[in-house]
Design goal:
There is one protein chain. This protein is mainly alpha-helical. It has two domains: 1-81, Orthogonal Bundle (Multidrug-efflux Transporter Regulator, Chain: A, Domain 2), CATH 1.10.1660; 84-134. Helices cover 55% and strands 0% of the residues. 10% of the residues are buried.
């Protein structure tokens, strides 16, 4: 368990699975408050900072944008408020995720089709390269000459 006493950025990073640079970035853009500093100018964090960072990280892991996370944090701090705005943000995000899933499923079908066209042989007869190239074009990569040692 993490105490409310001073934690270093490294300890917070390990506790949340977040890189120290990401923590600094979240501070710069206002998702995390600027922490107090020691006399030696080291950042010091408490349990509430770890909890807030864990919330931000989980939200980002689920694909919420920085701006959505900012709004969710503001809404989370107003505990008496109706959660309909949170619900609306989550529903909008789910619609985006489902759309992306549909796009990825179409992409997977297209790739399966391209791969099924492969009959082996030389690149000049490769159906995958042919399908990726503009119609009627041939794609030839000319090797760059090696510089003398």
């Amino acid at each position: 368990m993490i105490a409310e006493t001073a934690l270093t950025i490294g300890e917070v990073a390990r506790a949340t699975g977040t890189q120290a640079e990401t923590i600094r970035y979240y501070e710069r853009i206002g998702l995390l408050p600027a922490p107090p500093r020691t006399v030696a100018r080291y950042r010091i964090y408490g349990r509430s900072d770890v909890n807030r960072l864990a919330f931000v990280k989980r939200s980002r892991d689920l694909g919420f944008t920085i701006e959505e996370v900012r709004v969710l944090l503001a809404l989370a701090s107003d505990v008496g408020r109706d959660c309909k705005e949170v619900d609306a943000i989550a529903r909008h995000h789910l619609t985006d995720v489902e759309s992306k899933i549909g796009d990825l499923q179409r992409l997977a079908r297209e790739l399966r089709h391209l791969i099924s066209q492969c009959q082996g042989g030389s690149i000049s007869e490769c159906r995958i390269i042919e399908a990726l190239a503009p119609p009627g074009a041939t794609i030839a990569i000319t090797p760059k000459p090696h510089a003398p040692p």
